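pasting for ref
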Amino acid sequence: MAGYALVNLIREYCDSFDVIIPFKALSCATLIALGADNIILTRMAQLSPIDPSVQSPLGPVPQKVHPGYARGPIPVSVEDVIGYLDLAKDQGLKREESLLKVFENLSNKVHPLILGQVFRTRQEIVFLAKKLLSYHMEDQEKIERITNTIYKGRFSHDYIIGRKEAEEIGLPVIKPDADLERDIMNLFLEYNSLLEISVPYNPETILGSEETSTGVFNRAIIESLDLTHVFRTIKEIKRIQIASPQAPIPIISYQEKILSESWIMDNSI
């Protein structure tokens, strides 16, 4: 819903909504791209299928977690649930009692309310994709073809849709010339540096030799002609030791506490 809401908001303020994709725009970002009049793709650009996951307190909890980390529910992939049921049918389980047993086994692993949410989410994502495409397309057959391809025609959430394939399935692709592509990639590298997109998060980088330290993280940037707003998180990080019966020596772990988190204006960037 976040991607759908963003497209609707942006379209209230512009006559033409275009997106520029220098590198990865996956899942929800792909959904945003479906709502654009033009999708400007570099040669490195990547889209993906838009099969969602359901996150809920009722979700399944992993049996084992790393010491020091809370055991929380894990997301449930909508298409993984559907794939499990399709697998049962493909293996020849046609009788009602056999399919009932398969469903009962699934219900024992995944809460029934989550399964209901999975069904609703599957219908919702298809509706949103078609709705976003209809903002700039009138050909219903084309909308149906794009939606089927992006949603369920590529089997895996990890499947990469490159520029050539995006054009083949009917998306409004624009290929930038060499000068524009160079400018796009230079801007991407600037954002990559500001947001540390390519830097894996490691508390030790913030702590150094200290036991407690404060980290500042720029997590998103919105720019207009005259203003720059940054979504900034400031958190306190503390190194701790946890005794474990399975380990002869204490295990190093971390406690993190968010001190502040908000959009701020920062025209120094």
